[in-house]
Amino acid sequence: MPLPLMIYRDLSTKHAAPPGTSTQRRKEAYRTRFKIYQSALNGVGEMPSPLHFPEYNLHERFCRSARDFYAAGPRILGRLRHTIASKTINLFHLPPNKQKQREKAIQTFLECKAGWKKLKNPSTVECIIFSKDRALQLHGLLATMLEKVAPVVPVHVLYSSSSPSHQKAYEDIIAIFDQDNIRFIRQKNEFSFKHDLLEILISLNCDLLFFLVDDILFTEPVDLRDIVKFEPDEFVVSLRMGRNLSRCYVLQRPQALPDFPDYPDRPSDKIIWRWEEGELDWSYPLSVDGHFFARREMTAMALLLSFSAPNSFEDQLQIFKPFFINRRGVGYQKSRIVNIPCNRVQTERKNLSGNLHPDELLEQWQKGYQMDYKKFYGLVNESVHQELALALIPRKTFEAK
User: Which residues pair with 124 in a beta bridge?
Assistant: First the structure.
């Protein structure tokens, strides 16, 4: 990522009387420089200053040192001492450890949120999908999404391909869905995931967003107009949670359902619970599998974290779990999506999954097959992840409803 662009707040002194003596002018110059460095640390607008991003720790340290120097005002040999300290700051800089970085991210996040006005009546939604070497499965997700989700919203697919054959399969997908308000962004290289995701997040104009991964399918209808009625500061809406979930796939063990109090004005097709009172999947609000968040909140968190792929992104988000665990969860009586982990394409985590290699599905795609995704409509899954056989049929021209 390039060096951060600093945009300073307006420090106009157009109507101020000019200082009289040289000493007064020098003091005024110090005050002005202090304001500039303080502004750089505060940032502008809703997002935190780039100086607080993990990759700019050294720049932040220099800026903080300069701010403190000018805050103290002119003093004997002060500028000389400051110049020497600035020249040697690289020599004695040690990156903060994980605990310090976590504390810094939380503190910056709190300071950032303190300046926000309450998000009233959210109305717009966008979606970000992560995909790698799974064109056939992505086709199933996009097809079910267009058939089951209303109204149509902008979708941003951030994808990665490890070979020309996988890339060609993605180009087929792009051609199939070229009229459906879906934007495809190819990851620039194997190290650019964070940069590419931040570019997408910063470009969004929506109130709410949700993430999906390419081995998910929609199994039931979803009306997003119902979801935007829930204030994101109080609720985390989930497409994957439902009364049908009695098992945790990741830990391969049963999980109890939480209490579902009868809240006033609760729609009959929804369930509401407290994340802090649930267990396992029922106490995991910061998931990138179909959970809804305020766009500005998610963007601020992503800016302050270090990650390199979807799994480490979700792992790092848990730093902010204390701010979400006391919110209420909202799901449907029955799950709207299911994750079918028939294969694993990432190396960050040894997630439990099936052993169907992505290249096997690629070969079937090249032969003209697609997933028979309609077979999963109405599925009553027992866990948010569930290994299921992928039936294939000859590929058809897709037409959204």
Answer: none
234 in Cβ contact with 330 (< 8 Å): no
pTM of the model: 0.82
- The torsion defined by the Cα of 51, 53, 58 and 61, in degrees rounded to 10, comes to 50
**Which whole-number Å values give the CA distances from 340 to 161, 353, 393, in the listed order?**
20, 9, 18
Residue 359 backbone dihedrals phi, psi, to 5 degrees = -70, -30
Q: Say if residue 151 is preceded by a cis peptide, omega within 30 of 0.
A: yes
User: Tokens for 12?
Assistant: 């106009």
Q: Which residue has the higher pLDDT, 101 or 367?
A: 367
Rounded Cα gap, residues 362 and 167, in angstroms: 10
Nearest 5 degrees, angle CA 228-CA 232-CA 235? 100
Q: Identify the three-state secondary structure at position 294.
A: strand
13-17, 41-45, 272-276, 390-394: segment of lowest average pLDDT: 13-17
Q: How many residues make up the chain in this entry?
A: 401
- Determine the pLDDT at residue 158: 98
- CB-CB neighbours of 207 under 10 Å: 19
Contacts of 75 (CB under 8 A, 6+ apart): none
Strand (E) positions, 173-237?
182-186, 208-213, 216-218, 222-223, 235-237
What CA–CA distance (Å, rounded) separates 117 from 29?
33
Q: For the chain, which domains are there?
A: 1-95 (no CATH), 125-394 (3.90.550.10)
Q: String of b and e for 131-156 (b: at least 16 CB within 10 Å)? A: bbbbbbbbbbbbbbbbbbbeeebbbb
* Residue range 319-335, pLDDT digits in tens: 999 999 999 999 999 99
